[in-house]
């Protein structure tokens, strides 16, 4: 088990002094090994620092990705809500437009019906005026015919009178007969 309170640094390895004993280790080899251990500890410390830096960077990236993911999810939820609201609003507006169009159509139909009734009334009035006009023309023509008949009868009777006069006065020159007629 590793004691976490004990940290061996490369400097600690280089400075550690071994006691001398009679039958101890070869000092040069111990110093060489100590140098190798110190270098390995330095390398491991650098690798550990690099790994810690990378881990921190990855943790930051992970935190940023989580924040982005959260923001994207919130934006997606907002977009879905907005889409629903827009759809509802569009539905309400379309219903309102349909109602207004129906009211306008009913108004146009009612105005058309009123126009038709008014035109029918005008047609009846014009027909009545036409009949009245024709009746007046007929009366006028009948009067004219009566006057023409009367004038023809008057002319016939004056022709008969003139003929009788001519027959009765054969001695009268013809130019005098025409003066008598006038």
- Helix percent reads over 70%
- Straight-line N-to-C gap: 169 Å
* Proportion of beta-strand residues: under 5%
Compute the CA-based radius of gyration: 68 Å
Q: What is the helix tally? A: 3
Mean pLDDT across the residues is: 86
Q: What low-confidence regions span 5 or more consecutive residues with pLDDT below 50? A: none
Instruction: Compute the number of structural domains.
Output: 1
Approximate shape: rod-shaped
Main pleated sheet:
none
Number of beta strands: 0
Order of helices and strands: HHH
User: Which structural class is indicated by helix and strand composition?
Assistant: mainly alpha
Descriptive overview:
- The structure is a single chain.
- Helix content is 86%, strand content 0%.
- The protein has three helices and no strands.
- It is mainly α and 182 residues long.
- The mean pLDDT is 86.
- The protein has one domain (10-155).
Entry keywords:
rod-shaped, 86% helix, mainly alpha, 182 residues
Strand-helix topology:
Blueprint: H1 10-15, H2 27-168, H3 174-181
Q: Summed up, what is this model?
A:
The protein is mainly alpha-helical and 182 residues long. 86% of the residues lie in helices and 0% in strands. It has one domain (10-155).
């Amino acid at each position: 088990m590793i004691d976490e309170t004990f940290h061996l640094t490369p400097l600690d390895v280089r400075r550690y002094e071994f006691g001398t004993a009679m039958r101890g280790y070869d000092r040069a080899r111990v110093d060489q090994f100590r140098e190798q251990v110190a270098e390995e500890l330095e390398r491991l410390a650098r690798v550990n620092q690099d790994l810690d830096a990378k881990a921190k960077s990855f943790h930051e990236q992970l935190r940023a990705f989580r924040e982005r993911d959260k923001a994207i999810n919130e934006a997606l939820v907002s977009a879905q809500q907005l889409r629903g609201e827009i759809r509802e609003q569009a539905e309400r507006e379309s219903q309102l437009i349909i109602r207004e169009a129906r009211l306008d159509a009913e108004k146009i139909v009612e105005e058309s019906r009123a126009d038709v009734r008014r035109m029918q009334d005008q047609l009846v009035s014009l027909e009545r005026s036409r009949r009245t006009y024709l009746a007046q023309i007929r009366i006028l023509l009948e009067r004219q015919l009566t006057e023409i008949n009367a004038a023809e009868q008057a002319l016939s009777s004056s022709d008969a009178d003139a003929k009788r006069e001519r027959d009765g006065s054969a001695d009268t020159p013809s130019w005098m007969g025409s003066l008598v007629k006038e």
